[in-house]
Structures are given as C-alpha cells and as structure tokens.
Amino acid sequence: MMVEEVENILFTTTALYEANYHSDALITVNQGGTSSGKTYSIDQALFTKLAEREKKVCTVVGQDIPNLRVGALRDALEIYENSTELKRAIKSYNKSALTFTFNNGSVMEFKSYDSPQDAKSGKRDYLFINEANGIPYPIFKELYLRTYTQTYIDYNPNAEFWVHEHLIGQPHVKLLISDHRNNPFLPQHTRDSIEALKDEDEELWRVYARGLTGKIEGLVFRKWSVCDKIPENAKLIAVGLDFGFTNDPTAAIEVYQQNGELWLDEIVYKSGLTNPDIGQLLDKSKPIIADSAEPKSIEEIKRLGFRIEGAMKGPDSVKNGIDILKRYHLNVTRRSVNLRKELNNYKWKVDKLSGKAINVPVDVYNHGLDALRYVALNKLKQPYEIKATSKEALGFY
C-alpha cells in the first residue's frame, strides 16, 4: 500500500506520483477508486516532466470541457496555485485557451474531441486521457498515434471497456491500481464514507473503495441522454433542492419540460454550503421544491425571499418519485457533470442471499437525483404542462 508522502522540488507528492513519474512504459494506466489521487498524481508528474524538458507539448483530454473543469483541470489549477516553484517555472496560464505555457517553451493544454477526425489535429509529446471510460476508443487511437513519448490514462473501473480489451496485458503498458488508502491527504470522514459503501452495495465498494474492475448492473435510470443546453421554449417546472453540508453536497437541479420529455440542468452541487450561501446561488424568480426533512432550512431560505416548499414525501416516496421520472426521457445538460455521474451509478439494491435486485435503490450517488425526485413528487404526478405563471397557478402561496 503506497501512502507515504514524498518531497519533490516542485511540490509534496505521494508514492503514486513516483510510480507515474518514473514509469518508462509507453502507456501507464491508472485504474483507481474514488479519491485515490490518481488524477492529481498524473498532473503533478506531467508538470514535472514539462518543467524539466524544453519545448514539449502535453495534451490532457477529457470527455468534454465540463468534465475536465471538475477533474484534471481543477486538480492542475490547485497544484499550480499551491506551488511557488511551479509558478516560477510557468510563464502564464491562459484561462480561455485552457493552456499552461512554461518558461522553457513547454505547453500543457486541456482539450476534448468530438470525433476521431477531430482527434487527428495536432501532435504532442505527452498525452493524458482523463476518465477514459467516457472517451471512445477510435478517438484515443487517433490521439495515441500522434503522441511521441508517453501516454497516461486514468478511470474509475465501473466496468470493463476498451482499456481492458486493447491495452492491459500488453508489454508496453503498465497498470497501476490505487484506492483512497493511497492518498495520505484525504480527510478521515471521506475515507469513512467511501468504506461505508460496503454496507450499501458490495459491487460499488469494490469499484470505488478498492479500485477493482466491476460490473455495475441494475441501474435505476436508463432512458437519458446528454444535451448541450435547455431548449429556449422549454417550460420550467421547478428547481429541486437537496440539502447537504460536510460529507454530502447540496444539489440543486432545474427541471424543464418540452414535448413530453424532461430537461435537466445542474446549477448547484457543492459541500459546505450554509443556507445563506445557497441563497446566493439560486434565482428568486424560480420556484423551489426542497427536502421536507429540513423544515428549518426551508424556512430560512423562504425568509430570504424565495418561493420554496417541501417535497410531499410518504412511506413509498422514493419508489414513487422514481416511477414518475421513469415515464419520461431525461435530457441532461453537458455541464451537469455530477448529475450524469449519479445516473451512471444509481442502482437497485441486491439481496445478499438471492443475488437478485430488489425494488429499493442504493442510498448513494443520489443527491442530484433526490432533488429531481422532489420535483417529480410535487409537480409530475400527472402529465404536466405549465399553463400559467402566477404564484397561485404554480402552487406557491
């Protein structure tokens, strides 16, 4: 188990950084659980290589720019901000181009590609495929063919995909498996939450707590797709709001309807927010359906001038809300990264004796989905079209 910290000229690192930095394989695959530090360590290794070598180009690739902003790019910016030595090595960071330029002429750029043809543009010395299971193999192949020195790959192993089929086991590929125990900087409460997955679902625990290849079956929602934005003529139903604080994020999802489908946009997904903080992030003109288990929070937000009410829960409200939502095709905006991750992981519980799924969802990966479910319970019990915009017509008094 690699948990020790290692002093580096640019920043404090871990043994996972050392394994990536010193890898001499053409392709280094980082398969890991959540919060293992794999993306952070690869970013650090690449920053070091670029600082040491003149006029090198590194391309960091994500499924799309929103995913990069909450993944490899966010980690890179944190590393940059926390290292005086790295700042001295870097000439500038271009926020619009998402590019670090080093004093020695090296460059680290963050990009996404829509097609294999698009991926044929540009060449590089280093390639980093972040969350590779969201990127098609033909796109990876075109990028890899245009990479001269080394390629790094990371992902959570929800299920086997092209890395397992085409790369792992090849002589030019090195596999590193990590989990949260490899990250010495992780708070204990986060470790406890990850380990608690074992009580909820053994398969999710294997994937996210141990970094082992899984096969997540029995997903609750399958009828959904990604869209670029909410259509202009879609009608707002309400904003769903699920409260969190230390361990769990507060999630707010705007829910729209058009042509019998739902259109969803994640506007808040963050831990540590107080009710005044939440008020700063929401729009007072939009009605809110919130978790009725938090009446004090609902009242505080109402006193800030918001139209907010509690979800109409009951003994079977979780299942009822899911059943309502499953009548619709869900369109999720590309920027709703956390909601998309929840949809890819929200599954039915499995009876440990029979091994069969039961009609109860696992109580993880559901903060945005709970917010969505509150709207369903209050506003989608019947086929719903907004006909008026007054407070009374919308059910807010």
Write the layout of secondary structure elements.
Elements: E1 5-7, E2 12-14, H1 15-21, E3 27-32, H2 38-52, E4 57-61, H3 65-70, H4 72-81, H5 84-89, E5 90-94, E6 99-102, E7 107-111, H6 116-119, E8 124-129, H7 137-145, E9 147-155, H8 162-167, E10 173-178, H9 188-195, H10 197-200, H11 202-210, E11 224-227, E12 235-242, E13 250-258, E14 261-270, H12 275-281, E15 288-290, H13 295-303, E16 308-310, H14 317-325, E17 330-333, H15 337-343, E18 348-350, E19 357-361, H16 367-379, H17 391-394
Parallel strand pairs: 3-9, 3-10, 4-7, 4-8, 8-9, 11-17, 12-15, 14-17, 15-16
Antiparallel strand pairs: 1-2, 5-6, 6-7, 12-13, 13-14, 18-19
Helix pairs in contact: 1-2, 2-4, 14-16
What fraction strand? 25-35%
The total tally of domains equals 2
CATH architect. name of the largest domain? 3-Layer(aba) Sandwich
Number of alpha- plus pi-helical segments? 17
CA distance, first residue to last residue: 58 Å
Question: What integer value in Å does the Rg equal?
Answer: 23 Å
Query: What is the CATH class designation of the largest domain?
Result: Alpha Beta
Q: What about the largest sheet?
A: 8 strands, mixed
User: Helix/strand-derived class?
Assistant: alpha/beta
Task: Compose a concise summary of this entry.
The protein has 397 residues and is of the alpha/beta class.
